[in-house]
Amino acid sequence: MTTWSIDELLPHAGRMILLDRVVAWDAERIVCERVVRAGDAFVDTHGFPAWAGVELMAQAIAAWNGCQVLAAGGAVRPGFLLGTRAYRADADTFPTGTKLTVEAVRQFHDDDGMGAFACRIDAPGMHAEARLTVFSPPDPTPFLDPRNPLDSRGTPP
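The structure corresponding to this sequence follows.
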């Protein structure tokens, strides 16, 4: 199993990279880690808010996609979080110093880039879970250019 640094896998930069590393990945799932540190994005005096766990899950999915495309000789590209279902967390905050394990398991994925993943965050005495729907088109350019309006089918007119 090839492992890349997290900044090689994500189309994010600087403080917006919220994961520390990939622990394991394969064709169906990925496991990542993050230690909550003071001064990091979203972290306040109480720690990392549980509501921001959705972004950790989304980045785990992006890292999974990065592993898949890099292993196939492709290039990492932007993707989009389309929705979150049934996000539940049994804590309001993940305290500073807590090691979080973030897992995403592929439930559905098609050739056009639509996907659904069952995700979870685990830490000692804490748990969060959700199902995320994502879109990683082969060419994200039309979706990123604000001068290029899309019609109701999501394609340029």
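The first strand starts at residue 21 and ends at 25.
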